[in-house]
Design goal:
Elements: E1 6-10, E2 16-18, E3 32-36, H1 43-47, E4 78-80, H2 82-88, E5 92-97, H3 108-121, E6 126-129, H4 133-145, E7 149-154, H5 159-167, E8 171-175, H6 179-193, E9 196-197, H7 203-210, H8 212-220, E10 228-232, H9 237-251, E11 262-268, H10 273-279, H11 306-315, E12 319-323, H12 325-339, H13 345-359, E13 368-373, H14 381-384, H15 398-402
Parallel strand pairs: 5-13, 6-7, 6-9, 7-8, 10-11, 10-13, 11-12
Antiparallel strand pairs: 1-2, 1-3, 4-5
The structure holds pyridoxal-5'-phosphate and zinc ion.
Zinc ion binds next to loops.
């Protein structure tokens, strides 16, 4: 008999289960998290491995390497952002640039782990509920795995995200409603048809992929803990997973004490239920019924991990802040013009909140700051064009054009 490396544990009542295709606790309906029997690990363990997040195999919930479904995601740049840092008065600002993943968002991390696990469970179809990015990440990994893929997403997501998911061969179910409507339908169909919906009935394994955001940042900082982390928040799964990732590195002695990190949750004004709860000092998140924001990927009115994000902010000296559409679009251009990184509105939310935290004196100029940029600007050009000048069209006449090139 092969002993499994992982089990599942209820986040609420701590009851343990053998790893299986299940995601809520039988006793209290709490979410199940993956728990590991970690081997001994050292910095050298990872030193010469492949440049994808699968280099952290021992910290991921796949038993057999043959089940890995990889499209080469991860090990994205951690760029020391000296130009932007100078503008903001920060000496140690880093951008974790996940806009350059294979499907151009961080969602390749959770989707790749969930689809690998779906393969390990022997599932015959997969899918997701999505605000856009997860649709393409799931569809691409499903294509690689040779599995049919059903994506449930609002009909008004950006065209580039729809084009991507369809190109990878997904069945795109365009729901005339909000993300929460799409999510509810995906949950019911997933359960009744035995489809592995990566962010719902595969959620315990899905979130493990986002932990690699912590492993990479820690390794890229030569195994040091950042002081400040700015994270764009929709459902809150990523923020929670990043905390879990740093804690696990402490457990395996790859990092010293992580308790002094500051977690900063960034949300757009048109959908900021976690920020609202944080500012009211409330433990409960009141859903936003009709999100309205240029940051469509963060338009999750009823965040599944909202309550846990509030706990994490308390645990890790955190803050939550929001910014409006204009501030998001301005921040996209600021990042592009200072660092040559083109992000979609979710990344603009991170940058805008970074600015606000500096203005509010919440970040010291010498803090080691990591700002997460989670998606690519090419996915949302219709929104970004709103704040760009329409190009003037010139006749191919050298004198006319010469006059405008000074
Ligand atoms: C680009 C991008 N950033 C951030 C998020 C938020 O992630 P989470 O829902 O895990 O909070 C999303 C979610 O779709 C996203 O697409
Ligand atoms: Zn429980």
């Amino acid at each position: 008999m092969i002993l499994a490396r992982t089990s599942l544990q209820c986040r609420e009542c701590k009851k343990e289960y053998e790893t299986a295709f299940k995601y809520v606790c039988d006793d209290c309906f709490g979410p199940l998290d993956v728990k590991y029997d970690f081997p001994t690990l050292t910095k050298e363990t990872f030193a010469n491995r492949e440049q994808t997040y699968w280099r952290y195999f021992e910290l991921l919930p796949i038993e057999n390497k043959s089940n890995i479904v990889s499209i080469g995601a991860g090990m994205t740049p951690l760029t020391k952002a000296d130009n932007l840092g100078k503008k903001l008065g920060l000496n140690n600002l880093y951008i974790k640039n996940d806009s350059v993943n294979p499907t151009f968002s961080f969602k390749d991390r959770p989707a790749g782990v969930a689809i690998s696990k779906a393969k390990e469970f022997g599932l015959t179809a997969v899918g997701c509920a999505s605000t856009g990015n997860l649709a393409s990440a799931t569809a691409a990994h499903a294509a690689r795995a040779g599995l049919p893929c059903h994506v449930f997403a609002p009909s008004n997501i950006e065209m580039a995200k729809i084009a991507q998911a369809l190109s990878y061969g997904a069945n795109y179910i365009a729901v005339d409603g909000t993300y929460d409507d799409a999510n509810r339908i995906a949950a019911q169909i997933g359960d009744s048809k035995g489809i592995g919906i990566v962010n719902i009935n595969m959620r315990s394994h899905y979130v493990e992929g986002s932990k690699t955001f912590s492993y990479e940042v820690a390794e890229q900082l030569d195994w040091q803990v950042p002081d400040q982390l700015i994270i764009p928040v929709g459902s809150g799964a990523m923020l929670n997973a990043i905390c879990k990732g740093f804690e696990e590195l402490q457990t395996v002695s790859l990092l010293d004490d992580v308790s002094n990190m500051h977690m900063i949750a960034a949300q757009p004004h048109g959908c900021a239920p976690i920020v609202d709860a944080f500012k009211k000092n409330s433990k409960e998140v009141i859903p936003v019924e009709n999100p309205d924001t240029v940051a469509k990927s963060l338009a999750i009115g009823d965040p599944g991990d909202g309550r846990y994000v509030l706990k994490r902010l308390q645990q890790y000296n955190g803050f939550a802040e929001e910014c409006n559409d204009q501030e998001i679009l301005d921040a996209i251009l600021l990042l592009a013009k200072t660092e040559g990184i083109f992000t979609e509105p979710a990344g603009g939310v991170s940058i805008s909140i970074l600015q606000k935290m500096v203005e509010q004196g919440k970040i010291d100029k010498n803090d080691k700051v990591v700002c997460y940029v989670t998606g690519n600007g090419l996915k949302a050009t219709e929104s970004i064009m709103q704040v760009l000048p329409q190009p003037t069209i010139y006749k191919p006449n050298i004198n006319e054009i010469s006059a405008v090139v000074q």
